[in-house]
Each structure stands twice: as structure tokens, then as C-alpha cells.
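Thread title: Can someone regenerate the structure for this chain?

I was given the following input by a collaborator and told the matching C-alpha cells would be attached. They weren't. Posting the sequence so someone can regenerate them.
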Amino acid sequence: MGLASCKGASWRLLAVAIALCAGLTATSSRAGGYFFMQSIDDDIEDDVEDQVEDEVKDKTEDDVDKEVEEDVEDQVEDEVDQSVDDDVGQSVEDDVEDDVEDGVGDTVDNDVEDGVNDDIEDRVEHRSDDVIDRRVEDDSERHGRHGNDSDDHETRDRHASQESHNRGHAVADGSGGHGKPSRSEAMEAVKDRFDRADAQLDAAHRESLLMAKTIYDLAREDARRLRDEALAAGVMPRDEIEDAYKAALDAAKNSYDGARDSVDQAYDDQRDNQEEAEKTELAAVDESADDDASSEHADDKTSDDEAGVVARVGASRDLVDVDFDADGFAVARGEWLVMGSPSDLAAIESAGFRLRTRDPLDSLQQVVARVVAPGQMPADEAQMRLRQLAPGATVDYNHLYTPQVAGHRATTTGDRPRQLLPLPGAADKTAKPIGLIDTAVATTDPILSSRSIVQRDFVTGQNMRPKDHGTAVASILVGHGPGYDGLVPNAHLYAASVFENLPGRPATATTAGLVRALDWMAANHVGVVNMSLTGPGNAILEDAIRRARSHGVVVVAAVGNEGPAAKPLYPAAYDQVVAVTATNRQHLVFRLANRGPQLDFAAPGVDVLHVTPSGGMEASTGTSMAAPFVAATLLLASDSGAEVDEHILQALAKRAIDLGKPGFDPVYGNGFINPMP
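Best answer:
Regenerated them for you:
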């Protein structure tokens, strides 16, 4: 919120997990070749040990442990007489401390995101066939995995399958091979496409495991080489060198185990998403066939191109198709989003632009519309023309957004919210309203069923509404039941559902949906709204947040889980928003949390226990889990009308427990949130 002045998707977990191993090699190189010999600062060492323990738990592979143990025993038997010069040791220790704090983030962004994400995330997360084709061709050029004849043959096969897929949602018209396929043919086309997507997923899974093992082996070799160099240097006791060497091997092993676990978890999650998307598409094909068979208007048949679009967005009514802006962020294809007055939209319509939807925002005193340019007008020309026609309106893309969570595990060993943040007695009494803009919330679980929750759906169409993320955050805020208490269990929760599962793109929200949800919050006089989601900067969303702020609404948002060197994500990076990062039990920052001057507060976000839609409990990690702690704190500090003014924000900034460097810093912001007494 500027007091000092979370592409989502499961496969990003692979890059982050593998970066744990990659970070060992990168850190050792930067530390001049002797990183494993130094004793790390106690606080940093405790942080590393806790993170490793939380990530791997009881999943250690016995055969790898045995291999490492034998390797260490062999090396310990080596004769050593010499050690490292003290001056070099001090220099290396300084480098190590910096690398432990910042090096992993650099590795994630530079080494892993540019490599693993290009090869895996684009191929799996955005699983439309044309993208898959491009990625496989790029892989072939870079890695030489297939010969030219094989590449050409595979590409031709995929293009043929793409044509079949593009007709997959068309309905039978009896026109034979050149017309639309029958219901059974359409079903087979969908199944064929998902079979190929499953094969891609399996291949990505194998590649990721192999990469993790390769990096682990390299880290061990590097540690062994550096140990030998240390022994040859000559002034440190042999026992200290050997102990440091063992610690390096243990760290590499723990990172490798954590990488394997994360890869497997991401694979399982993505496979579940694909199965769910396939069921959704098959149901849509079946429904489409029934509707068309009963229609008497033969001229209304779906074209091949339109059928391909349906395959990408499923049964959505908020999206016609998905495209990408110049920065690579997903947007609704073929439309602009305009927020302005009724007269602004009238001027736009009179100039030949078509309004796909028009939604009045009564509380924000605006109208938001999805606008299509006339004819073949280029995008930049259309944007300029819209701004000329309605200079008082705000114009931007209809960007897409995703929830923010870095990882979860089905366990009850996480920390309950009340264990992580001491709260005043008012926390159990307050009945003020608090807002949540997220996925839908499953209210059938006993922890949430008795709570005061008002839900409203801001998504149209028949695509499935995800519930995991919103249910988790809602339980942290207002959950109450045997053995579990949320932060403000008697508050009235206004929960806006803004996400839908697209085929191959789970949990997707549009800017238009977020804006409509903000207007609803303002209409219900909700003073604090939690938005644990991220995406690109968008002028429409920023304007809506600014207008909501003028109506007494403060937005609390997760800063994101893209790594220390990542660019700012929104809405957290807006000045009007309270941006939150995540810390562990020792108040040390979550290693994948975004950083920057936009950050306001740190809060618990590692292994936070919450409810799942199925009625169980899970522990999740990420800045999404931290945001509700700050939202609840602001609610408790709010005035009688549940509003939070600048004086309250400034007071909380001063009360925050300073972490990291003295005063405000880009890692912890103003510090760890400290509720008013």
C-alpha cells in the first residue's frame, strides 16, 4: 500500500522444487568454491532446517540415503592435514549469508524459470494443441531429441488431430467427412486430445524427476570437489572440513527429496485437473449435440473455428477465447474492457463498437463493459479510438488472474491460525463484515457450516467453480469447530466467487468479474476485503480499487509466490492495497515470496492448517495464507463502521515487529503484523 513510500498453475511448483537443488550448485559457485566449509548464521540455519523438515517430512528415499551415507564414509576416510585460510573463510561466510537469503530467488528466476518453465509449464499449463506443437518444435531445435523426419511426422499428426479437436464440440448433421462429426466422433476427438495431453504430462513428470536427480548428483560431486580443495588449502582442522562436507551432502539430499515430493504432488494435481476438464468437455459435447439435434435452424450450426474456441474456454460465458498481451499475460481475446459512465458507453456504441456485456456498478458509480471493435480494426487503433470517444473512461484488456498458493500437503501437523498470531479478546466477539474475493467456498464442512457466510457468484456459464482456495482462506478467517478456530470466527463473511475452471487452465478469473465483486463489497459496506490472487497490472482494476477505497473498502492482497527477484504482481502492488508476504514459525520470510517496495506487512504463511472442500484438513504454504492474518488484524482495528482509515494503517505500521534490516525493507515491509491490544 506504499506505507513506506501470490501463470498459475501447478507446474510452477516443479520449477521451484528443482531450484532447491539448483540453488546448491549456484550458491557454491558464487561463494568462491568453498561454501560448504562455513558455519552459517544460526537464524538462517534454523530457517533452512525448518523449511526442509516441512517440505520433506517422512518421504526420504532409503536407497538414496544409503548411497549418500556410503559416499560420506568413503570421503571421511581420506587423509587430511590442512585447512582454509581464515581471511578466505570470513569472505566466504559473508558471501554465503547473502546467497542463502537472495541466491535461491536468483536461481529460480534466472536459471529455472527461463529453462524449466519454458519447457514444461507452457507445455502443460497452457495445454491447447497449438501451444503444445510450438513447444515440442522448440524443444526439438534446442535439444535435438528427434530427427527432422520424425519431427515433421509428429507435427503433421498433431495438426491432423487439431483439426479433429476443432470439430470436437460440433454436433451431428449427417454431412459425412466434410461436415460436422457425430456425437461419438466428437467424443472421440476430445478423448484423443486429452490422451495426448496425458502423454505430455507423463513426459514432463519423467523429465522433471530426471532433472532433479541430475542436479542432486552434480551438487554431491561439487561438494566432494570443494572438500578436496579445502583440504589442499591447508589451515583448517580436518574435522571441521569433514563436518561441513557432511552438512552439504545432507542439504543436497534434503533438497532432492523435497524436489521429488513437489514434482509428484504437482503431477497428481495436474492429472486431477485434466481428468476434471475432460469430464467437463465431454459433458459439453453431449449437451451441445442434444441442443443442436432439437434445433430447427440449420443455419445456426457451430463453425469449426468456434468449436475450437469452445474447447479452450469450455462452457464459459465470460470469455470468448484466451489470448496474451505484449508482456505474456493472459487476456480475453478480441475485446477491450471499458469502465466509464453511461454516456461514455453510448458514445462508444454510436461509433460502431459492439458491447458484449454491460454491467452497472452502482456503488462505484460506473458501468463496466466488454467491448468489441468494428470490422478488422487493429488493437492499438481500437484502444486509441476508445479513449478518444470516451476520454473520461478507463480502457484496458480484460486480464485473467489466478489464486496464490505455493504448496499444500494432506496433513494435520500444520499450525492452526490461533497458534500463529496472538489476538485480543475482541477476535472472538466481533461480528463486523469482512470480505473475500476468491474461489467459491464449500460451506458444508462443520468448521464453516455454522458460520455467517453470504456467497455470491460473479461467474456466468457452466464451467466448474473451484472451491479449494476460497475454502482454505475462509476457514482461516471465520472457521470454528472442534479443535479449530479461525481468526475472527463470528465475523460476517461476504464471499465473492470469481473463478472458473477452463479446460487446461484451472481457477481463472477475469478483470470484469473482480470489478463486479468489488462493487458488491462496497454495496454491502464491507470495510476489509481479502484478495489472495495475482496477475498483471490493469488500469480498470486499479480504478475500481481506488473507487472502492473512497467508499471505505481496504483491499488486502497476497504479494505473490514468484520468487525474490520477480516483478511486482497485482493487485498487491497498487498503492491503495495492503500487500502481504509470508513468514514461517521463526518469522523468516517464505523463500518464494515476492519482494519489493510495494510490501506492507509480513504474516504467518508457512504450513497453515485449514479446511478442504472434502471436509478434511490440509496445511498450505504461500502468501495467500498470510493475507487473511492481516485482513483479520485490520478488521479488529477498524472503527464501528468496520472501516480502516490511514491513521489505523499508520498505527499498525508502527506497531509491526521489525524483521530483517532495521526499519522498512523490501523483504518484510514494515515488519510482522502485530494486532492492536
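The first strand starts at residue 322 and ends at 324.
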